[in-house]
Design a protein that fits this description.
Blueprint: E1 2-6, H1 28-31, H2 37-42, E2 46-53, E3 58-69, E4 75-85, H3 91-106, H4 165-178, E5 183-186, H5 198-207, E6 216-219, H6 225-231, E7 237-240, H7 247-252, E8 255-259, H8 260-270, H9 278-298
Parallel strand pairs: 3-5, 5-8, 6-7, 6-8
Antiparallel strand pairs: 1-2, 2-3, 3-4
Helix pairs in contact: 3-4, 5-6
InterPro entries: Ribosomal_uL4, Ribosomal_uL4-like, Ribosomal_uL4_dom_sf
Region (Disordered): 24-44, 107-151, 272-299
Keywords: Ribonucleoprotein, Ribosomal protein, RNA-binding, rRNA-binding
């Protein structure tokens, strides 16, 4: 068994070598806009990528030391986020499979049309077969007429596909690992909001060096009602819990914000030495079903 450690200075959604091969490195500057200056001044994480070769295969581990910010916006310490990551040559395919699987499983598959035999009416022949000089026609519900049936139209279909739990977790941890440069850790602030106030939440984002106009994802183990009401009018913000954490929102966000308890959850669930727990799997599946149900209801 051999292991190698490589320091990483820049990791992000688009410029990370986890997702881009060396042949596409020339296009990195065109894929990601420069981050805000304020965010860079207050946020300088340190990365370490370890690749271990065993008889079972190649295992990659990405450890990052992230600063912890208080509610007032000052740095009060640091924490380590230690996640499993897919090897460089398979990272893109793992994340792509996880994303396409999520998107397919969100489809309701309820689109339905009526064939000419299912459309109401059209039982009587509209006019005689001969001696009219017109084309012969046996029903008014032919697909050639308005109001007729549909040829080869959609019918209810199950679009869901299966993905292994370990593969899906690896896709999520790889996506988070690629965005650690744009990630900060904050102290739990659920009880800081005594009443709902969007203006105070926007001021909080600015104290942490976040732009309210940029897409941000908050991962919190518990979200109070006042926090939900204070942040729901911010269209660029996603407030997630471990039950609703999904790959699409991670990749769709420009900044990630984790609480201290959320970091502990990530290290336990997606860490290098994570333990597979049946209760955790059931909770994760229930969260995915809940998220899919909410999205289908919105449609």
């Amino acid at each position: 068994m051999s292991a190698s450690t490589t320091p990483y200075s820049t990791l992000s959604f688009f410029s990370s070598s986890v997702f881009l091969s060396s042949s596409s490195s020339s296009h990195q500057n065109h894929r990601q806009p420069p981050p805000s200056k304020l965010f860079l001044k207050t946020h300088k994480p340190q990365f370490s990528l370890t690749t271990t070769t065993t008889k079972a295969g190649i295992r990659s581990e990405l450890a990052a030391t992230l600063p912890i910010f208080s509610f007032e916006g000052t740095q009060v310490g640091s924490t380590t986020l230690n996640l499993k990551s897919a090897p460089l040559d398979t990272a893109r395919s793992v994340v792509h499979r996880g994303l396409t699987t999520d998107l397919r499983n969100r489809r309701r598959g309820t689109a339905s049309t009526l064939t000419r035999s299912e459309v109401r009416g059209g039982g009587i022949k509209p006019y005689p077969q001969k001696k009219t000089g017109r084309a012969r026609r046996g029903s008014q519900r032919t697909p050639l007429r308005p109001g007729g049936g549909v040829v080869f139209g959609p019918k209810p279909k199950d679009w869901s596909v299966k993905i292994n739990k370990k593969e899906k977790r690896l896709a999520i941890s790889t996506a988070i690992s690629s965005a650690l440069e744009n990630t900060i850790v904050v102290e739990d602030f659920e009880e800081k909001f005594e009443k709902p106030k969007t203006k105070e939440f926007i001021a909080l984002l600015r104290r942490w060096g976040l732009d309210p106009k940029e897409k941000s994802l908050f991962l919190m183990t518990e979200v109070s009602d006042n926090v939900i009401l204070s942040s729901r009018n911010i269209g660029t913000l996603k407030m997630l819990t471990p039950r609703t954490l999904n790959l699409f929102d991670i990749l769709d966000s420009e900044k990630l914000v984790f609480t201290k308890t959320a970091v502990e959850f990530l290290n336990e669930r997606y860490g290098f030495d994570s333990i597979e727990e049946e209760d955790g799997d059931e909770a994760e599946e229930e969260g995915e079903e809940e998220l899919e149900g909410e999205e289908k209801a919105d449609d």
